[in-house]
């Protein structure tokens, strides 16, 4: 009874904390971005980018705090003890909720570089978000379709070259690039609609991951295959559990993989490479499906012993 009465206050506290932290840190990063725009010198850009990254990590700590403000979350993390903040990583992860972003922020604050996303060029013009992401040196991609390239052959490879130029900034700041390979959040309805051959996952989309490796593969120290499982997430939204203080356990498995040379190639123009890469990613997804099954058994066992 008391828990039900306190629930609205927990929602208000968690939401207010997240919104206020995002607003304050976001405004600071935007101000740093304005200085970057006014001081177009490489040395100044590197210093300001590092300063913005420190504020981004502060935001990560604030988001990590959300898991402790109104609920005693217990973290069950395996396989991340050998990671380092001064390395470069690419993450391939399953996607259950936008809470996944906060989970990855929590992991980054522990022992990984702060994460980055590859963004569509159009997002640059989104108020606040676009300029904030630019200040954090997140790459904005401009992809060209096969039809556009056929009409204008000079566009061939320009998207890769442009993104590679943007990613040169990551040579100075250790970075983690995140790929949610399913392309959308998992739900039972989407699972049925896509007729997924995986029990707990949607089919992975290989293009974005292959593009990331083609662009930055030689810079990455490792690929991190991260699997996230929330107890009871099939029954209710994870974000609601977080806001109302009922998210008590989070299970995360991290597997570190080498960046093999055969994983770097032209996915969009090399048919043989595309087939091999799809097979590799599908095999990773098959293993991830097994990891989720194992973690769900662990959840049932942990629940039975409480």
UniProtKB/TrEMBL annotation:
InterPro entries with a match to the protein in the record: Plipid/glycerol_acylTrfase
Keyword check for Transferase: yes
For this UniProt record, the keywords arranged alphabetically read as follows: Acyltransferase, Membrane, Transferase, Transmembrane, Transmembrane helix
* Recorded superkingdom: Bacteria
Transmembrane ranges? 12-38
Positions of the Phospholipid/glycerol acyltransferase domain: 89-231
The GO terms describing molecular function are: acyltransferase activity
Q: Read off the NCBIfam families from this record.
A: PRK14014.1 (NF010621)
Protein name, per record? 1-acyl-sn-glycerol-3-phosphate acyltransferase
Q: Which organism is it from?
A: Pseudidiomarina planktonica
Taxonomy of origin reads: Bacteria, Pseudomonadati, Pseudomonadota, Gammaproteobacteria, Alteromonadales
